[in-house]
Amino acid sequence: MNEKLKNIENDDFCFENRFLLDLRYSSGALNITLSSTEENKGDEIQIVFDWIHSFRVTDEGDLLKLQDELNGKMIVGIYIVEGSEYLTWFNNQSANIHDNDEIVNYLIVTSEDVIEVLSSVSPSIVCC
């Protein structure tokens, strides 16, 4: 495995103890809402991708091999995956029609879920 995680530094938001509250996909856009509790609606973080190519959501407990391969480097937060196997799979499936696109594999790790997003645009992160 050649995947490496590059942490996206963000001093404005704390991803610790966050869980996936809501995920909405519509017309190519993806809106991910994270919260520390279901009741505390004022403590939400929204990660918005205006355009995505693909995404997947996996329970973090089902990614034991990935966690082992990353030697504990996958902790809560948001990352860019360098050498992404998911992006390689996507390019293969799309017959490499996106070779000239700058597609990035974003990895969002919460307390319970891991969300991977392939996007040509950077996400906006806002506190609600």
Describe the structure.
The chain is mainly beta and 128 residues long. The chain has one domain (4-127). The protein is 12% helix and 42% strand. The chain contains two helices and nine strands. Strand 2 and strand 3 form a beta hairpin. It is globular.
What are the key terms here?
single chain; 128 residues; mainly beta; 5-stranded antiparallel sheet; 4-stranded antiparallel sheet; 2 helices; globular
Layout of SSEs?
Elements: E1 4-7, E2 19-26, E3 29-35, E4 44-49, E5 54-59, H1 64-69, E6 77-82, H2 85-93, E7 104-109, E8 113-119, E9 124-127
Antiparallel strand pairs: 1-6, 2-3, 3-4, 4-9, 5-8, 6-7, 7-8
Q: Assign an overall shape.
A: globular
How far apart are the first and last residues' alpha carbons, in Å? 37 Å
Helical percentage: 10-25%
Low-confidence stretches: none
Output the helix-strand order. EEEEEHEHEEE
Pairing-aware structural class of the strands and helices?
Answer: mainly beta
- Mean pLDDT metric: 84
- Rg, rounded, reads 14 Å
- Annotation field: number of helices: 2
How much strand content do the residues show?
Answer: 35-45%
Query: Which sheet architecture does the biggest sheet show?
Result: 5 strands, antiparallel
The strand count comes to 9
In total, the number of domains comes to 1
